[in-house]
Amino acid sequence: MRDFLGGIGYERWVLPALLLIPIAGAILIYVARIGRGRADDIANAGSARVIALATLTIEFLVSAGLWWTFDTGRSTWQNVVMKAWIPEWGANFVVGIDGIALMMILLTTFIMPLSVLGSWTSIREKLPAYYALLLVLTTGMIGVFISLDLLLFYVMWEVMLIPMYFIIGIWGGERRLYASIKFFLYTMVGSLLMLVAILYLWVQTWQAGSPTFSYDALLRSVDVGRTAGLLLFGAFFLAFAVKVPMFPFHTWLPDAHVEAPTAGSVILAGIMLKMGTYGFLRFAMPLFPDVAMLPAVRTTMLALAVIGIIYGALVAMVQPDFKKLVAYSSVSHLGFVMLGILALTMESVQGALMVMINHGISTGALFFLIGMIYERRHSRMIDAYGGIARVVPLFAAMLTIVSLSSIGLPGTNGFIGEFLVLIGSFRTQPIWTVIAATGVIFAAAYLLWAIQRILFQPVTHPENERLTDLNAREVVIMAALVIPILWIGFYPQPILARMERSAAQFISDVERGATERSGSARVGN
Amino acid sequence: MLLQEVAAAGAHPLSGTVATWMWLLPLLPLAGFVLNGALALAATYRRGPSDPTVHADHTHGAGHDTGHAGTAHPDHDTAHHAPTRHRYAGLVSIIGPAVLFAAFGLALSIFGAMTRVDHLEQPFVQRYFTWMATGDLRIDAAFQLDQLSMIMVLVITGVGALIHLFSIGYMRDDPGYPRFFAYLNLFVFFMLVLVLGASYPVMFIGWEGVGLCSYLLIGFWFSDTANADAGKKAFIVNRIGDFGFLIAMFLLYAHIASLDFVGISQRAADLAPGIVTAICLFLFLGCAGKSAQIPLYVWLPDAMAGPTPVSALIHAATMVTAGVYLVARSAVLFALSPVASLTVAVVGALTALLAATIGLKQWDIKRVLAYSTVSQLGYMFVGVGVGAYTAGIFHLVTHAFFKALLFLGSGSVIFAMHRAYHATHSHADAQDMRNMGGLRRYLPWTFALMWIATLAIAGIPLFSGFFSKDEILAGVFARAGHSTLADVSWFGIPGNVLLYAIYGIGLFTALLTAIYMTRMMLYTFHGPNRTGETERSHLAEAPWVMTLPLVVLGVLSAIGGWLNIPELMRFLGPPQWLHHWLDPVVGAPALAVTGGAPVHLTHQTEYMLIGAAVVIAVAGILFAVARLKPARLVPKAQAVPERGFARVLANKWYVDELYDRSVVRPLVGGSRRLLWTVTDKWLIDGLLVNGSARLTGFFGRIGSYWQTGNVSTYAWAIVIGVLVVLGAFTLR
C-alpha cells in the first residue's frame, strides 16, 4: 500500500487535494443544476446528494491513504506543502499534519459521507445549496486541522463557521433563527478575539523585522511578557472554550443541536466541538505555556473542565428532549478531554485524543439514531416513545450499543478514552480526577434512564406500534459507526501509536516553554 | 489474530499442554452469543413490527399482577392454542448449551493437565496482543491460568452448563428465546474474561461486561416498567462500585506503575501502608457493588425480576461472587492491610445479618433466596476478610451448588404454579409462598432436592455447606486469637474483640439462616395446598430437561464438602484438598495474616466450634418447625399486612426508601431545578447571554433615541459639548 502511494506521489499532493475535492464537488453541484428549473426539491435536484456522496466518499478514500503513509517514528510535520500567499505579510499557504491532525482528518472524512447518507431523505428542500454547504464545510474543517499558518488557520476557521450557520438557520427546526444567531454570535465573539490575538502576535514579529504568521516561527519566538501573555491567552481561551464548549460557555450548544438538522448535529458534535480542544492542543497551550501553566490559570481551567463533566451529566439526566440530553452529555465528555489535556501526562493526553475520536463516533451515532426515529415520529421528546424495542429491534440494538459506548463500557471505544484520561490525570491531579471519575456513574444514570424510557417499558403511544425498523441505508450508516466502536474498544493500539509522538511533542512544548520562560522571567527581574 | 499472537509462555510446565487452549474457553460462549444474537435479530427483523402474536405475548406478560412482575411466563399458551415456539428454537437449544458443555469439557481437560503437574507455583500467563500502551502504561490483552482461576472456570462452565440446560425447558415458549440464550452466552464469556484476565484492566472488561449482561437479563421482559427499573438500578449501583475499582487501579498505577497480577505481587511490598489500605478499600467498594454488600446490596433483591435461570446463574452462583474472587485475587494487597481486611470482614458480617433478618419475612420465594444470597455472600467476605481465603472460596463453590439448586428448584415451582394459574386464567401471584403449600405431593423431585440444598445451606453435618461455613467460622475464631488483624484497632475497637463479635454474628446468622430456609420449605412444600381448587389438578413436575440439572446439583450439594475436609475428620477422606490446591495462590498472603505460621486450634476447641454450629443449625430448623404453622396460612389475596417489627422486616428496613429520599430524589430534583433551571436557563442563558444581548440592545436604543434627525437638536448638542470641553480646560 505504502509503495503504491509513494509511486503516485501521494504524500506531496494529498493535503491540497483534500481541500480541493469538496470545492470541486460543490461546483459540480451547481453545474449539474443548470437548466433544471428553479425547484430545488428531491425530484428535481436529487443529483446534488449523489454528487455530494460521491465527492465525500472519494475524499474519504483519498484521506485513508494517510493511515498507511503516516510515519509514526517522526515528530516533525508530515506531508508539508508550502506556497507563498501574501509574502509581504509573511503569510503563506502552509499545510502539514502530525498524528493528532491525522486522526482528526480521518474522523472528519469518515463522518462526512455518513452525514450525507443521514440527510438523504430528511432534507427535502434547497438541496443543491445544502449539499454544497456541506462540501464547503468539509474544506473548512480539514483546513483548520492542517493549517500551519495562523492567518490561513483563521480563514479556515471562518470558512467552517459560516456554512454551519446557514445549515442551522435554513434547514433547522422551529427556533432555528434564535439558535443560529446564538451560535453565530457566541462563536464570532470568540473568534474575533482570537483574530486580535493573532494580529498582536504578528505585530510583534513585524516590529522585530521579519513579519510572519508561521506557526513554527511563532511557537519558537513568542515571548510577550506576563500581562500581554495573559490577555492573548485569554483571547485564545475564549475562542476555543466556547467551541469545546467548556462550562459556562456551553449554552449555545443545546439550542444549536436541537434546532440543527441531523447532519448538522452530527457534524457539530462529531467534528466541530473538537476544533475547540484541538485549538487548546495546537495553539493556546503551546503558544502560551507559561500562562497556561500558571497555577491559578491551570486550576481555573481544571475546575471548569471537571465542573463540565459533572454538571453536563447531571443536567443531561433531567432533559425531556433526547437531543438536548445528548448535547449536554457532550459538555460532560469534552470535560474529560480538557481534563486530560490539562493534566499533561502521556496517558492523559492520549486519552484526551481518544475521547475526541470516540465522542465523534459515538455521539455522531447517537444523533444519527435520533434523526432516524425523528423522521418516523417527528418528536425528539423521550416521553413520546417507550417500549419500542419490541417494535424496532434493530434500532434498539443499535441505540443500546452506541449508548454503552458513550457510557464507556470496556470493550467499546468509550472506555479506552476515559480510562486513559483518568489514569493519566490521576498522576498529576488526583483530587480533580477522583471527582471527575464520579462522572462515570452519572453517565450510566442519564443514558440508561433515557434508553429505558425510549426502548423499554410498555408501549404507551399507539402510534409507536407502527414504527418501521431501520432500512438498508440506515443500517449502512450504523454498521459503519459500530465497527469502529468495537474495533477501538478492543484494539486501539494502532491509533495510539500514530498519536504517540505528537502527544509527547505537545507535552514537551508546554513543559519546556513553561520552565524556560518562567526561568527567563526570573532572570529579568 | 488471537491464535497467531499467542506468545509462548516460556518454559512454564503448562506450555505445550492443553492449557495453551485456554483462550478458547471464553471464545466458545462468545461464538454462541454471536450466533444466537444473529438468529434473534434475524427473526425479529423478518417477522416485522406488526406481527400480532408478539403483542399478545407481551401484553400477557405485562398483565401479571405480581408486584415484581418478573414472573416467568413459559408455556402460557398451551391451553388455548399450539405453543408459539420461536422459529429458531431448535437451533438455539443446541447452540446455547453446546458451547457451554464444550467449554466445560475443555476446562476439565485443562484441570486434568494442571493436576498432572507437580509443582505449579507460577501462574500460566498467555499474552495475545497489546491492548493499550502509551507513555509508561502498557496493558496487554492477556489471560492468566492458576489454581484460583481454574476453580472459578470449572464452577462457571459447569454450573453454567447445567443452568443452560434447565433454560431450554424453562424458556422454551418465550418469544425472546434466542435473545435469552445470546445474553446468557455473552454473560459466560464476560465472566470467563473476569476470572482469566491477567491484569486488573482486563478483569475490568469482564467485571463491567457481566454487569451489562445482568442489566440486559434482569430487564429481559422489558415491557414491564418494574423489570426495566430493576435492570437499570442494578447497573447504576454497580457503577458506583466500579468507580471504586477504577480509583484502586489509578492508585496502583500511580504508585507502583503496575496493573498486572504478577507485577503487583512482586511490587506490592513497595506500597506505603496508607496507600495499600486506600487501594483495598476502593477495591472493596467495587466488591460491595458487584457482590451486593452494605451499602450497595439493594440492587440484588430487585434483580429477581429477571427469569429464574438468570437468578441462579448470575445472581447466585457466579457474577455476585466476583467480589469474593477479587478479594482472593488481591490477597497479596489485602494481607498488607489489616484495617482494610477487617473492614471487609465487618461489612460481610453485618450484611450477612441484615439480609438474614429481612429473609425471615419475605413471601416471594425468590426474594427469600435473594436475601439468602446476600447473606451468604456476607459469609464469604467474612472468610476472605479475615485472611481465610481458601475458606471463602470454598464457600463460594459450595454455595454455587446449593444456591443454584435452590433457585432452579424455585424455578421449577414457579413453572408449575404458573402453568396451573395460566390454565385457569387466574392472575394470582405464582411466586408468593402464601399461594403454594403442600407442593411435595405434586413436585416430589423438586421437593426432595430442595431439602438437600436447604440442609446444606443450614449447615447440617456432611452436607456441603456444613464444611464450608464451619471453616469460615473456625477461621474467624482462630484469627481472633492470633493474627495481624487481632493486633490492630479498627475505629478504636481492638481487632480481637471485633473478630470475636464477627464470630458471634456469624453464628447467630447461621441460626437465622436455618429458620428462614426451613420457613420457605414449610410454606412451599408442606401443609395443605393453597393454590386453588381447580388449579391444583394442573400442578406437575417439570420436564426432565429441567429436573436433570437439579439432580446433578443435588448430588454436588450433598457431597461438595469433600473438596476440603477438615484435618479433624480425615477419616472421611483425604483432607484439605482445596487448601493444598489453592496454596500457591493464596498461601503466602494467608500466612502473612496469621503471622507467618499456620493457624492452629486445639482439637478440643475445634470440636467445640463444630458442636456449636451444629446445635445452632438444628435448633434453627426445629424452632421453625415448631413455631410456623403452614396450615394456618391463608392465600395472598386474603392475607393481612404485617404489623410492628415484622412490618419493618417485610419492608426491608426501609433502606430503599431511605436511599430514594436521601440520594435519588435530591440528585434528580437538584439537577432539574438548581442546575438546569436556575443555573443554565436563568443565570447563564438568561442573565449573562441574553442579558448582555438586551444590554447591547438597550444602549442601541439610547443611541437611537438621540438620533432624532432634528438638526437643531444636533446643533445644541454640539454647542453644549464645546462648552463642556472648554470649561474643563479653563477650570483645570
SSE layout and pairings?
The complex is a heterodimer of chains A (525) and B (732).
Chain A: H1 2-7, H2 10-33, H3 42-45, H4 47-69, E1 78-86, E2 91-97, H5 99-119, H6 127-146, H7 150-171, H8 176-207, H9 215-221, H10 226-243, H11 252-259, H12 262-287, H13 289-292, H14 295-317, H15 322-343, H16 346-377, H17 393-407, H18 413-428, H19 430-437, H20 439-455, H21 472-490, H22 493-524
Antiparallel strand pairs in A: 1-2
Helix pairs in contact in A: 2-4, 2-6, 4-5, 4-6, 5-6, 5-12, 5-16, 5-22, 6-7, 7-8, 8-10, 8-11, 10-12, 11-12, 11-15, 12-15, 12-16, 12-22, 14-15, 14-19, 14-20, 15-16, 15-18, 15-20, 16-17, 16-18, 16-21, 16-22, 17-20, 18-19, 18-21
Chain B: H1 2-5, H2 24-47, H3 52-62, H4 89-116, E1 124-134, E2 137-145, H5 147-170, H6 177-196, H7 200-218, H8 225-256, H9 261-267, H10 273-290, H11 299-302, H12 308-317, H13 322-329, H14 331-334, H15 338-359, H16 365-385, H17 389-423, H18 444-458, H19 464-481, H20 484-487, E3 489-490, E4 493-494, H21 495-525, H22 533-536, H23 544-559, H24 577-593, H25 603-627, H26 644-650, H27 655-706, H28 711-731
Antiparallel strand pairs in B: 1-2, 3-4
Helix pairs in contact in B: 2-4, 2-6, 4-5, 4-6, 5-6, 5-12, 5-17, 5-23, 6-7, 7-8, 8-10, 10-13, 10-15, 12-17, 13-16, 13-17, 15-16, 15-21, 16-17, 16-19, 16-21, 17-18, 17-19, 17-23, 17-24, 18-21, 18-23, 19-21, 19-25, 21-25
Explain briefly what this protein structure is.
The complex is a heterodimer of chains A (525) and B (732). In chain A, 76% of the residues lie in helices and 3% in strands.
Give an overview of the whole structure:
The complex is a heterodimer of chains A (525) and B (732). With 525 residues, chain A is mainly alpha-helical. Helices cover 76% and strands 3% of the residues of chain A. Chain A is built from 22 helices and two strands. In chain A, strands 1-2 form a two-stranded antiparallel sheet. Chain A is globular, with a radius of gyration of 22 Å. The relative contact order of chain A is 0.09. In chain B, strand 3 (489-490) and strand 4 (493-494) form a beta hairpin. In chain B, helix 10 packs parallel to helix 15, helix 17 (389-423) packs antiparallel against helix 23 (544-559) and helix 18 packs antiparallel against helix 21 (495-525). At the A-B interface, helix 8, helix 14, helix 16, helix 17 and helix 18 of A face helix 2, helix 3, strand 1, helix 7 and helix 8 of B.
